[in-house]
Write a structure and sequence with these properties.
Layout: E1 2-9, H1 10-15, E2 18-25, E3 31-37, E4 44-51, E5 54-60, E6 65-69, E7 85-95, E8 100-108, E9 142-147, H2 161-170, E10 175-181, H3 187-197, E11 200-209, E12 212-217, H4 229-238, E13 242-245, E14 265-270, H5 281-288, E15 294-298, E16 314-319, H6 324-332, E17 336-339, E18 342-345, E19 348-351, E20 358-361, E21 366-370, E22 376-379, E23 384-386, E24 391-395, E25 403-406, E26 412-416
Parallel strand pairs: 9-10, 10-11, 13-14, 14-15
Antiparallel strand pairs: 1-8, 2-7, 3-6, 3-8, 4-5, 4-7, 9-16, 11-12, 12-13, 16-17, 17-26, 18-19, 20-21, 21-24, 22-23, 22-25, 25-26
Helix pairs in contact: 2-3
């Protein structure tokens, strides 16, 4: 057993926010375990690990222990050969008091840390999906319903990947992006679990720091959150993925760093907007940011304790098929729409996928409106028109977008470019 203590104070945080505590792994080691302890009333400390060959995982503040071996690892961490040499426990000094916090670290070789359970999740059958709504689309395309922001036990969510996938099916979604914080340990499991549960699972990583959060979509490997935020955007694009700024105006999780080269997408409708659906702060941010990024929605689902479920809001993507590659191609091309209707079920809300108001762009001049009668279509310039029919097409030049469908009291219902 290797034991160390770090005296973390504001001076250490200022010069080394992601503090490495090294330890040596001998050749032939079959597993390692790490456990930290500290007074949680005096600070928030994140946990991660780096090996000689690179990053091995991150659990943020969700865990205080992990284990890694050649073929298994705690969710959030990558299994694989334990290379001989210097490893490091990485401590994210997220929130510290005026004084200091003592962080005790124990490293066990072999590991004395147990793996968490991974319960069996039966598949749901016979659940209709958003794509079966048969929204108007060009030949060879369809509109698929999904959610671009979800978490599992691989970071700070409470659901396994299979449990999240089943919940997405239950909500009537065609796809879910799984975007755990600062790790890609979930990526190798997504295709098989998605096939087992009958839903497309898109690889993602929520790159997360105190300066902003953003989703890197695609099977593109790990994006180093310790690098400058511009590097997140550039590296994601270089590898063929899609980067989205997340909840750009959400309290202390807002995006606060200017960018020279902007990402392709923005989480325009985050679940936090449900607190005030007539608030227009995100519109001001979008205008200041240049009014160019593809519009996405994200529930930021973590656990059943919240009011929202996956699909609040629903993002609709016009794509050739329901594969991660085609869905992300649709995002790159800007073929998205967002709807936010929900209904109360006991102590939470669930998305209304099939009867929700929706607006879709048909071409550069026309928008199609469904379930819109009596509501108001508003463009980004401020022009307003009352929707007179439940289902209709409306003249809506793309250069005046994005467009918003609101209730008469200005409650946001749906969005399209």
């Amino acid at each position: 057993m290797i034991s160390k203590v770090v005296h973390a104070d504001l001076h250490l945080q200022a010069r080394d926010r992601y503090h490495k505590v090294p330890f040596f792994v001998p050749a032939g080691t079959e597993s390692l375990g790490v456990r930290i302890s500290f007074d949680s009333t005096r600070g928030v400390v994140d946990l991660g690990c780096e090996g000689p060959a690179g990053w091995r995982g991150w659990s943020g503040g969700a865990r205080r222990e992990f284990t890694i071996s050649a073929d298994q690892a705690t969710p959030g961490y990558l299994p694989g050969v334990l290379e001989e040499g210097e490893w490091a426990v990485v401590l994210g000094l997220h929130n510290l008091p005026k004084g200091s916090v003592d962080i005790a670290i124990e490293v066990s070789l072999p590991s004395a840390v147990q793996l968490p359970d991974d319960p069996h999740v039966p598949r749901l059958e016979g659940i209709p999906r958003g794509s079966s709504r048969n929204l108007p689309a060009p030949e060879g395309y369809a509109w698929y319903a999904g959610d671009f922001h979800n978490h599992t036990v691989h970071s700070d969510g409470s659901q396994t990947i299979a449990q999240l996938a089943r919940l997405g099916v239950e909500m009537g979604l065609d796809f879910l992006a799984v975007t755990d914080h600062n790790t890609v340990s979930h990526h190798p499991h997504l295709k098989s679990i998605g096939q087992e549960q009958g839903i497309t699972l898109i690889p993602g990583q929520e790159v997360t720091t105190n300066q902003g959060h953003g989703n890197a979509f695609g099977d593109i490997g790990w994006i180093d959150f310790r690098e400058p935020l511009q590097n997140w955007v550039d590296e994601t694009k270089h590898r063929g993925g899609v980067f989205s700024i997340n909840h750009p105006i959400d309290a202390d999780c807002s995006w606060v760093v200017p960018l020279e080269r902007r990402p392709e997408a923005v989480e325009f409708w985050h679940s936090s907007w449900y607190r005030d659906l007539i608030g227009d702060g995100i519109l001001s941010w979008y205008a200041a940011a240049g009014n160019r990024a593809t519009l996405l929605g994200g529930s930021d689902f973590h656990n059943h304790g919240g009011l929202q479920r996956p699909g609040m809001p629903v993002t609709w993507v016009l794509a050739r098929d329901n594969t991660p590659e085609s869905i992300l191609d649709g995002v790159k091309a800007g073929r998205t729409a967002i709807s936010g209707a929900a209904r109360r079920e006991n102590d939470h809300y669930v998305p209304i996928v099939f009867d929700c108001p929706i607006i879709l762009r048909l071409d550069q001049k026309t928008i199609w409106v469904d379930k819109g009668k009596g509501n108001i279509l508003v463009d980004f310039v401020g022009n307003r028109q009352v929707v007179e029919e439940q289902q209709t097409t409306v003249n809506a030049p793309a250069e005046n977008g994005p467009y918003f469908l609101t209730a008469p009291d200005r409650t946001m219902l749906a969005i399209t470019a």
